Fold these 3 entries.
Entry 1:
Amino acid sequence: MVKGVTILCNLYTKTWDERLQNPELIKFFLTNTLLNLGLTPIYDSLVVKVFPVQNSGGFGITGTIILTESHLCCHTWAEYGFCRIELSSCKEISVDKFKEMVKAFFPESQLDVKTIKWR
């Protein structure tokens, strides 16, 4: 039986937060988070794209990276001060350490976190 965990984070911060608007910072966040958790990113799978948000005049960023253990993705809506982060891993990881890393990158944010264990 495959064991693992999926961590879903809804992150709320100030509108137009620079970190939610900068593709290079999202790349840094994704790569740094994985390395500090001891996960194995497949580097040529890192993709970060900027896209317009319909009917808002804003834009978002989606970043994802495939891991040998599963994946990490991040979606931002800067005009709403919102970010959705999902980490799935079949390797045992510390959920608390992951939350600490997210809070360190977005220190003034509010996090709502849900953890789903795989059977």
Note: Residues 13 and 108 are 7 Å apart (CA to CA).
Entry 2:
Amino acid sequence: MVLDEQSARTLARKEPRVLLWILKERKRPPTELFFAAEHARETNDPEAVSLLVDLLRSHESALVREGAALGLSRTTDPQAIAALTRAAGFDSSEAVKLAAREALEQD
């Protein structure tokens, strides 16, 4: 199965553990990991935040880091806020910086 935006959204609602497993494994192409990361917050699983923080901090693909930043929107987790703040100021990708700033501005 190719993971697109619609299938990532569906997995987040109906099979959240599968979506989080995809993020843990990191074996999918960056585009698919972007969609998985972007919709991980919809799982309401506490593990999602730590997975997204790890992706934002360390994934080699800017597209995946951008998805992780978007996935961390509306978070109140201190580690996530710290990772978003760092990415907003220092990530090598302008798209990631913008996504991190937008995530921090979400209420």
Note: The chain has one domain: 5-105.
Entry 3:
Amino acid sequence: MFGYDLPRLHAALNDFPPALLLCAVLFDLAGWILRRESLIWAGIWTLWTGVIGGWAAVIAGELAEKKIDLPLAALRPDLKAILRRKRRRRE
């Protein structure tokens, strides 16, 4: 899909939601301070775009997880336990 495999798509989608949610807060603050309805609406639309982008990143991450087989030895001990539980649930 456009030169992206699922892990790269997930990595690309990961950056947008936090940036959009931060911008939504800034738009809301600016709209509140300047009393401009257009800035408040920009904050609302930016918030919803960030939420939808967050769900897109989660879905891409779940799909990408099936494509990557991480060796358990490369992970921290706490992450190993989480990954083992997840793998057991799938079986």
Note: Residues 6-90 form one domain.
